[in-house]
TrEMBL record:
Pfam families found in the cross-reference section: Bac_export_1 (PF01311)
Presence of the UniProt keyword 4Fe-4S in the record: no
Record field: transmembrane: 6-29, 41-59, 65-88, 175-200, 212-232
Family: Belongs to the FliR/MopE/SpaR family.
Coiled-coil ranges (or none): none
Protein's UniProt name: Flagellar biosynthetic protein FliR
Highest taxon, organism lineage: Bacteria
Primary localization: membrane
A GO biological-process term: protein targeting
A GO CC annotation given for this chain: plasma membrane
Keywords linked to the UniProt accession: Cell membrane, Cell projection, Cilium, Flagellum, Membrane, Transmembrane, Transmembrane helix
Length: 252
């Protein structure tokens, strides 16, 4: 049994570096509750799973070339994970908009698990997206996307930086657009509530309507945010498809 050769061993090491770098950045595996040891073992296991793709015809490299290729695989994994992270940041941004317009922004805090600095709905939306990725098998599609990258972008091939920069720029634009689309109906309701309170104060200043503004906006936010929350499964499914399209566009 001579399958375990030096070329096979090097290819598995290089593939595991790309896998681990991707898992450290890309959701849902980037969550702080998943230890780095688990991410490393998962990356090595996935590298072994794609070994027929990465080790086929791989020639052992010299020390300098091997280190350079190792760094290159690290950069590729981080870049692909960053693109997927941008796609799913739309949900976090939508929660931030809800917190801002709903008056919850004053109670923001840093969540070391999700590495999110935000108030209640920011963390709630982000946590719900991570849970939905696991319960709807979206994480399997994310893993399938990085696995297919070894076919489209074999070890030894360089990442197209121009195409990656274009994809990242488009992802930033889609992030803000998706965030507004997710939280848009609730933001309109909150804006109309502010306008109504302003008109009421203008008509009858003695009522001091703005003293009721915070409780009223909090009630409206909680009631209408449930509608946005119900739509999150479809949103997560669409973002998974968007993330896979970006991976395919960069590596294809």
């Amino acid at each position: 049994m001579s399958m375990v050769t030096m070329g096979w061993f090097e290819a598995i090491m290089l593939a595991s570096v790309r896998m681990v770098a991707f898992l450290v950045v890309a959701p849902p595996f980037s969550h702080g509750a998943i230890p780095l040891q688990v991410k490393g073992m998962l990356g090595l296991g996935l590298a072994l799973a794609v070994s027929p793709l990465v080790a086929n015809g791989h020639v052992p490299l010299e020390t300098g070339a091997f280190i350079g290729t190792l760094i290159e695989q690290l950069v590729i994994g981080l870049a692909l994970g960053f693109l997927v992270m941008l796609a799913f940041s739309a949900i976090q941004s939508a929660g931030s908009l809800v917190d801002l317009f709903g008056g919850f922004q004053l109670s923001q805090a840093f969540d070391p698990g999700m590495l999110v600095n935000g108030a209640q709905f920011t963390r709630l939306f982000q946590m719900a997206a991570i849970v939905l990725l696991f319960t709807t098998d979206g994480y399997q599609m994310v893993i399938a996307g990085i696995s297919r990258s070894f076919t489209a972008l074999p070890i030894g091939n360089s990442l197209d930086l121009a195409m990656t920069a274009k994809a990242a720029t488009q992802a930033f634009g889609d992030l803000f657009l998706s965030a507004v689309q997710i939280a848009g109906p609730l933001l309109v309701v909150l804006f109309l509530a502010d306008v109504g309170l302003g008109l009421l104060t203008r008509v009858s200043p003695a009522l001091n309507a703005f003293s009721l503004g915070f409780p009223l906006k909090i009630l409206i936010t909680i009631v209408f945010a449930s509608v946005v929350f119900i739509a999150l499964p479809r949103v997560v499914a669409a973002l998974v498809d968007q993330g896979l399209q970006m991976l395919t566009g960069v590596t294809g």
